[in-house]
Amino acid sequence: MDGENKFEIYQENGKTAVNAYCEVPELKLEDFKAFEFAIKNRYWYQMFIDDLPIWGVVGEIDQNELFLYTHMKFDIGYNGHRIVDVNMTTEGKTALKQGDKIAFSYEVNWKPSTIKYEDRFDKYLDANFFQHRIHWFSIFNSFMMVIFLVGLVSMILMRTLRKDYARYAKDEEEMDMDRELGDEYGWKQVHGDVFRTPAHLLVFSSVLGTGYQLLVVTIAVILFTILGELYTERGSLLSTAIFVYAATSPINGYFGASIYSQSGGKKWIQQMLASVFLLPFVVCGTAFFINFIAIYYHASRAIPFGSMVAVTCIVLFIVLPLTLVGTVLGRNLAGQADHPCRVNAVPRPIPEKKWFMEPLVIVALGGILPFGSIFIEMYFIFTSFWAYKIYYVYGFMLLVFLILLVVTVCVTIVCTYFLLNAEDYSNSE
Hints:
The chain is an alpha+beta fold. It has twelve helices and seven strands. Helix 3 (133-168) runs antiparallel to helix 11, helix 5 (201-228) packs across helix 6 and helix 11 (368-386) packs antiparallel against helix 12 (394-421). The protein is elongated, with a radius of gyration of 30 Å.
């Protein structure tokens, strides 16, 4: 549409002023169809005044006739020199007809308010939704799952391993006889192969180092959000996540390089570069691709090109040097292998196993319990995105994340034991 779109909101002794900010001399067919589609599909828009969100509808259908709202009335509450409350009312109901002249206008009413600046976001927090009894019940359900799972894992492993240790406690003659009769089975058969160098050591160590870093970043960002209420300012949560990720880059380099060196890796520079660019390439590559599409379609939410260049510079000039520091420390401080048993010179052949003992099947089944412990919380998180609600219960998120860690550790122990018991050491790293 032709015309200049400009808002000028300023305080003028509490007076109300009506200003025209956009005018369409003649509604063209293309613009008419765009408005028609938006009204029929109940489109609405969102704006921000001093980081406070406001919403409005494009128009409505009344008696099978399309109407467009052309006037916006802003009621802004202030306390001292700060804005503490914003409301918007859509008015100016105008029939939508092709070829008509349409003028958009707005007015601003300033009102004193007793709302404190630190409490101005309270009206946007939907306590009835996020603190519903279902939310509390899901936390309790996940907590009971953790207790049950930890108890089950402890009981199974202790009873099973106790029998295995009892076999090892026999005197030497009985052990020799058992070996001749082939009495050894399960994980005891592969104790000399479990510490063998993984097939894809460079990728394995890079993923492991990135995982350690993401664990620290997630916990740190959640704690910062709880303490600093980062949800009250747009972009502050993302900026904090980027800052914490860059600052914790030595963790990635340290753990990735230590595992790589312990396994006998020699190409440590390639391993460091893989650790640096693994996650940024996947995340930023996907985000930049989607953002270029948004720029092509002139979307208002498109990230400016300068911001993409800034993120790239952060990776190259901050993440890369810090990861190098962590890599050097990891290679020199924790790069010596300290395995409890020696690795056999000749790899043991892996026997055939039943279909349900295949690694892919175990991975798929093992992911059910971790997902079950967080799916209710994921519902609230995604609903906050889709319904434009402000997610603020980060205490719940921290508790659910800790539950997820415990469940994942227990499931990993069980899955690893199953693989080793099937004498498959190649997928138990």
